[in-house]
From TrEMBL:
GO terms for molecular function: guanyl-nucleotide exchange factor activity. Forms oligomers. Interacts with 6 of the 7 known isoforms of 14-3-3 proteins. GO terms for cellular component: cytoplasmic vesicle. Residues 95-118 are annotated as: Disordered. It is found in: Cytoplasm. InterPro entries: cDENN_dom, dDENN_dom, DENN_C, DENN_Domain_GEFs, TPR_DENND3, Tripartite_DENN, uDENN_dom, WD40/YVTN_repeat-like_dom_sf. It holds the Pfam family uDENN. Residues 94-527 form the UDENN domain. This is DENN domain-containing protein 3.
């Protein structure tokens, strides 16, 4: 079936109407015509009709079906005969053109016709020219899937839908219209030529002959093509003599000239009398086209049955749909395919099987097929192990099976419950929508009203189905290792509730899920990722920052107690410790500019329609070119009248105009329009199409393109992107325990793949611990024992169930990480429990109780000793706290040494976290103590405690190096965060940007929060919610080069400059990069914004080659550009309409509007022989001061710009090797630097008073160079360090 239908797909059909394009046989553009891959007319052969009409008169019942035949096929190009000679004489045209054709038959002679008495007639002679690569064998059966029967009376027109799938999985779609024509006086006609059969001359046969018209398209425009065919059937009714070929050919040609709209908010409209046909666009490039009623399955099945069917599809069963309505088979099957998005069915998909194709259901592999209900018994009896779904009555059954009936697992309970509730809340009946509306007499208005209702409902159904998919697979990401592309399926299954495991066990083995994993590992930002991100809880956002072992929080423990059928619906990991717990009282856990907004349900998508110009016939080249010219002019007018801030629509118009230019053979114009997508909507840029244009462009036009810098850069980018795509690694591995001995490098990889820990230094310490007393390699048995002990401990922790009397003493985000055996203590008998904040005793007896032992921050001393009991010495742990006089003692016996290490490590980690305002230290300490526990449990030798001590990182640091933080630093430092969380190595922070909260009621509450943008290496950007310091968006990707600058140009735009010469523009509402500016030719080094009356008016960008560009912020057009006489432009500042440009050797001052050079500032300092590294302007009451630093210098120079000839004031910064960055905050200058201490690089921040010109504070907060500084509303300063530390410090401004 698949192979037969495949050849109907026409791969390249657009060369016809453009002589230039048609000249190159290699030019294979696929320009997305709406339809007319093929259009065909089908009917039964004439002789059969005549014979059956007479047979019907004699035996009116139980007539066998006739065999349909293809009468005409219309395949592009649609060229009139008058144009053929003209076109063929052109040397630019392809000689091997495909043509539409008609079936040709000789007029049979009277004597050769089969007589009524059964005499044999002579065979007809036929000559059918089938277009290349088109096979019509299976098409007639699918156009009449129930068989072709004559009728004694006319029947209603009938439309059904087809889907063809080739061997590569590519789908093509067909819409078939069946209609009946009367046959009178023995006259039957085909292709406008009467054919006469000598049967019963002069008498009416009383037969109605069925015809079918099939339109095949590359896109699933089911409703649009249904409307088109409905209009065509109305137009064909007046033709009594079957003279319809020319009309159908014009119909096919018209559809072929209609382009498919690009993704986004623009629908195309064209006139097909009596209806206006709308061609809908897809929502975004990764979304499917939806041109059908998505709620149809919800009308046919109960929500529980819909979930059953979804399970069958997700587990890749062999599925057969049944219905008495052929149209419903395809539409319902397609709806279920759309419910899966972004997952995709990857097996055989044939929603309609004709009666001759029923043996296809015997296929042994997974498939989804559809049959008429008449064949239900036959299919259920003949085929085994099928899921049989009756659309008409909503039944779901199984066919006979060799053993027992297969069990369909249930969808995970909580996801199912949410889905059912949402479906039950949907308004599925249009009649209820009309109750309060007046009657409309306008057909167009009725059509638009129904379409608007359906569009809204489709959006709700789509969102409901997507939410189901997200709820089912949300936690998959928690068991992925992105660096090594590993999915730990076993551990994922262990975290599923027992009742949900049968479902996941089956789904995890499917091709569909494997492709889903590839997309997750590639960090694809598709519909699933966007919804998953937007519905993350605050706990999930904080968990991204800490790769901690999974444990139940107290809050979840309580919910588990009150719900016996507790279903694990979230990954059970700990949350970050309460930030207040490690901050001074005035610390900023929430910036006051934030206002939490309670918004209502967001508005639905809004669309604009564009009316396609009329197409005039006859279809000759002049008419087609006139149509393209009109189309081009209409688009140009729309572009010129549209305001520049409506970039979404502008992008769609540029895209369409580029296609039209391409059809006209104007390749350079097409490339220019496609290049405009950079500044309007980069997501719809047709990379493959542009690459094909470039590869097949004539040398003369290619040289013209290379002479235009913007086109040359476009071409280079597209060809380079193709090479990058070829390098993409998309394999997926399942985690497996090692089978050979491991050296350090292999051990690091295996531990990271297992998901236990990612940090390289921690894994190195673990390697040392596991190899104590052995060669520096680890055998598979040791690794297995360690891994199993870790996972068993993790599983046991899930079963910890504290009584309510204990839970009420704990914070809701606390987790129990370790429990001792039952021990005797001076507080009573019980188990010692450890959380991330405290130790407490879980007392035993009649009623388990809670006794506080110590909060880690209150511990004063920890000792491991022994106490005498008779003749024995029992190992005992002693803990002394600040708040209690009584020392806690516990007779831990064999556990004593391990608990001693654990408590000391947690104590040291908590002190580090408090001193450095860095909650990650406590998380690292928790990981260390659990690794100690696993090492002791796995090794079981005399050296286990010594081995475990190798992991006491913080305790060793406390003992080896005094960790006192200077008082000034401690008082000013409020918090630290790590943008490299979850990565194998820390990454340098190149740029920081703070953007304030936005009071926009149309946005989600989280979108109103202030944000911190952090640029890491290789074009990565991490975004934090600055109200909680949790990661809001993990890892944008802006090219692959180093990012150099970031600025909030206006409320909805953040511009990011890169060393690849691009400026990337992020939409702060959608949090996506869909625009870029490419006018620079070298590294973009700085971007600034000019504001007038507080409103952004222009943006200025500069690049290292000395180019300065002034931008119109709304239109993104270049207002002015200037080339400075330098080759090392590093930064620019704007003050009083003057641009101050730092070029390394000097500072140039030019007027902002004319770019005229006003002054040149060169240092004349004898002791300075280096270049200007960074500078700032500091306006004072009467003066403007210029602050500058030089490479390799620890001195800060300050000039009065009114007297530049005078010697500048110099401030020497102690313990500084070089000044790296500076920003103005209130009346202070904050200076970031690099220095050395005890042979190590350190980062130091100096706060300099602008008035006194003295250093007010020296802040030591980083273990590497301070590379970036930014201000948060002049109340906080944020600093980022180099790759040795890779953290961000948040400082309070006095």
């Amino acid at each position: 079936m698949g192979c037969k239908i495949t050849n109907i797909i026409e791969p390249s059909l657009i060369r016809l109407f453009s002589p230039k394009l048609a000249s190159d046989k290699k030019l294979g553009f696929d320009l997305a015509s709406v339809t007319c891959k093929l259009s065909a007319i089908l009917r039964s052969p004439n002789c059969s009709i005549a014979g059956f009409c007479i047979y019907r008169r004699r035996k009116p019942k139980n007539l066998p079906p006739l065999d349909p035949e293809v009468l005409s096929v219309f395949v592009p190009p649609f060229i009139s005969k008058d144009d053929i000679q003209v076109i063929n004489t052109s040397s630019n045209l392809n000689k091997s053109k495909r043509r539409s054709f008609r079936k040709k038959k000789e007029r049979p002679k009277i004597e050769n016709v089969k007589s009524l008495h059964g005499d044999q007639k002579a065979a007809d002679t036929e000559e059918i020219t089938v277009p290349k690569d088109i096979d019509l064998i299976g098409l007639p059966q699918l156009c009449f899937p129930g068989g072709l029967y004559l009728a004694s009376e006319s029947k209603e027109d009938h439309i059904h839908f087809l889907v063809f799938t080739d061997v590569c999985g590519n789908r093509t779609y067909g819409v078939v219209a069946q209609y009946y024509q009367p046959m009178q006086d023995g006259c039957i006609s085909s292709n406008g030529q009467d054919q006469w059969e000598s049967v019963q001359t002069g008498k009416t046969l009383g037969c109605f002959v069925p015809f079918a018209i099939c339109v095949i398209s590359r896109y699933p425009y089911f409703n649009a093509l249904k409307d088109c065919l409905s209009c065509l059937l109305v137009q064909l009714r007046p033709f009594k003599n079957f003279d319809v070929d020319e009309h159908i050919k014009e119909f096919a040609a018209k559809l072929f000239l209609i382009p498919s709209p690009p993704p986004g908010p623009l629908h195309l409209v064209f006139n097909m009398k009596p209806l206006q046909i709308i061609i809908p666009s897809r929502e975004d490039p990764d979304s499917p086209i939806i041109d059908l009623d998505l709620h149809l399955p919800l009308l046919c099945f109960k929500p529980e049955q819909v979930l059953q069917i979804m399970t069958c599809i997700l587990t890749e069963q062999r599925i057969v749909f049944f219905s008495s309505d052929w149209a419903l088979l395809t539409l319902v099957a397609e709806c279920f395919m759309l419910y899966l998005h972004p997952l995709q069915w990857q097996h055989t998909f044939v929603p309609i099987l004709s009666r001759q194709m029923l043996d296809f259901v015997m296929a042994p592999t997974s498939f989804l097929m559809g049959c008429h209900t008449d064949h239900f018994e036959e299919v259920s009896m003949e085929a085994e192990d099928l899921i049989l779904i009756n659309i008409d009555n909503g039944d779901i059954t199984h066919s006979k099976t060799p053993e027992e009936e297969p069990e369909i697992p249930d969808v995970p309970a909580q996801a199912a419950e949410t889905f059912i509730k949402r479906v039950e809340s949907l308004q599925l009946h249009y009649d209820l929508e009309l109750c309060h509306l007046g009657a409309s007499t306008d057909l167009g208005e009725l059509q638009m009203r129904r379409r608007a209702w359906q569009q809204k409902l489709n959006s709700e159904v789509q969102q409901t189905a997507l939410q189901l998919i997200v709820n089912i697979f949300r936690e998959v990401k928690d068991h992925l290792n992105y660096e090594h592309r590993v999915f730990n399926s076993e551990e994922f299954l262990k975290t599923r509730a027992m009742g949900d495991q049968p479902f996941y066990k089956k789904v995890l083995e499917t091709y569909m899920f494997h492709s889903f994993l590839k997309a997750r590992l590639n960090r694809k930002m598709d519909a699933f990722a966007r919804l998953e991100l937007s519905t993350q809880s605050e706990e999930d956002r904080l968990n991204v920052m800490f790769n901690s072992p999974r444990r139940l929080t107290v809050e979840k423990m309580a919910s588990k107690r009150f719900n016996p059928q507790y279903v694990i619906s979230r990954r059970m990991v700990i949350s970050m410790p309460n930030l207040q717990d490690i901050q001074l009282p005035e610390g900023p856990t929430r910036i006051s500019s934030l206002r939490r907004l309670e918004t209502g349900r967001g508005k639905g998508r809004t669309f604009t329609t564009f009316k396609i110009p009329e197409i005039h016939f006859p279809l000759v080249c002049q008419c087609v070119q006139s149509y393209y010219a009109d189309f081009f002019n209409h688009l140009s007018k729309a572009i010129n009248t549209l305001p520049p801030d409506n970039s979404a629509l502008l992008a769609r118009y540029f895209y369409l105009r580029g296609l039209i230019s391409l059809m006209q053979g104007k390749l350079l114009n097409a490339l220019s329009d496609f290049q405009n997508l950079d500044k309007t909507d980069l997501r719809i840029f047709p990379t493959d199409l542009v690459r094909k244009i470039v590869e097949t462009m004539p040398p003369s036009e290619r040289s013209q393109a290379d002479r235009k810098p913007e086109l040359k850069k476009l071409i280079s980018r597209v060809m380079e992107k193709q090479r990058e795509i070829m390098k993409i690694d998309d394999h997926v591995k399942k985690f497996e325990l090692p089978k050979t001995h491991m050296q350090l490098e292999d051990f690091v990889k295996r531990i990271q793949e297992s998901g236990i820990v990612k940090d390289i230094d921690t894994i190195h310490r673990l390697f040392d611990a596991l190899t104590v007393g052995h060669q520096k390699q680890i055998d598979p048995e040791t690794f297995r024992d360690f891994y199993n002990y870790w996972k068993e401990t993790e599983a046991e922790a899930q079963e910890v169930n504290l009584p309510p009397t204990v839970i009420e003493h704990l914070d809701k985000n606390e987790c129990v990480y370790k429990l001792s055996c039952s021990v005797k203590t001076n507080y009573g008998v019980g188990k010692i429990a450890l959380t991330q904040k405290r130790l407490f005793l879980l007392t035993e007896g009649g009623r388990p109780g809670y006794v506080q032992i110590a909060a880690f921050r209150d511990i004063e001393d920890v000792k491991s000793t022994t106490v005498a009991f008779l003749v024995l010495r029992i190992p005992t742990l002693r803990i002394k706290t600040i708040s209690k006089k009584e020392v806690f003692e516990a007779n831990l016996k064999t556990e004593c040494d391990l608990w001693y290490l654990i408590v000391k490590e947690m104590w040291a980690g908590k002190k580090m976290a408090d001193d450095h305002k860095d909650p990650q230290y406590i998380q690292q300490a928790l990981t260390n103590i659990l690794l100690m526990d696993a090492v002791v449990g796995a090794l079981q030798s005399s050296k286990t405690i010594y081995a475990a001590s190798k992991l006491s990182y913080f305790d060793r640091m406390k003992n080896e190096v005094p960790m006192m933080v200077p008082k000034t630093t401690s008082e000013t430092l409020k918090h630290k965060i790590n943008p490299s969380a979850g990565e194998m190595f820390p990454q340098a922070i190149d740029v920081l940007l703070y953007t304030p909260g936005q009071l926009d009621p149309s946005e989600r509450p989280v979108s109103a929060h202030p944000k911190l943008w952090c640029a890491l290496n290789e074009g990565k950007v991490v975004v934090f919610d600055a109200s909680t310091w949790s990661i809001q968006q993990h890892c944008f990707k802006m090219g692959s080069s180093k990012l150099t600058c970031m600025v909030m140009v206006e409320q909805s735009q953040v511009w990011i400059g890169s060393q690849d010469s691009f400026i990337y523009i992020i939409n702060t509402h959608s949090m996506s990069c869909n625009k870029q500016l490419n006018d620079h030719r070298s590294d973009v080094t700085d971007i600034i914004v000019e504001k007038k009356n507080g409103i952004p008016s222009e943006a200025y960008s500069c690049s290292s080659d000395g180019t300065v560009i002034a931008w119109n912020i709304s239109s993104l057009k270049v207002n002015r550009a200037f080339q400075l006489p330098c080759q090392n432009l590093t930064s620019v500042k704007l003050h009083n309409d003057l641009l101050w440009c730092c070029t390394g050797s000097c500072i140039l001052v030019v007027s902002a509007h004319e770019f005229r050079l006003q002054m040149k500032i060169e240092h004349n300092l004898k002791d300075v022989c280096s270049c200007v590294l960074c500078f700032q302007l500091f306006p004072e009451v009467l003066n403007l001061n210029l602050w500058a630093s030089y490479s390799g210098s620890s001195d800060l120079y300050i000039w009065n710009t009114r007297d530049l000839a005078s010697t500048p004031q110099m401030i020497h910064l102690q313990d500084c090797s070089e000044i790296t960055c500076m920003i103005k905050v209130k009346n202070q200058m904050w200076i970031g630097s690099r220095g050395r201490s005890q042979g190590k690089i350190k980062g130091k921040i100096y706060v300099v008073s602008a008035e006194k010109k003295t250093v007010e504070k020296e802040l030591v907060g980083h273990a590497d160079t301070v590379k970036a500084l930014c201000s948060a509303e002049d109340r906080y300063v944020l600093s980022g360090s180099g790759k040795e530390e890779g953290k961000i410090a948040i400082w309070k401004v006095e």
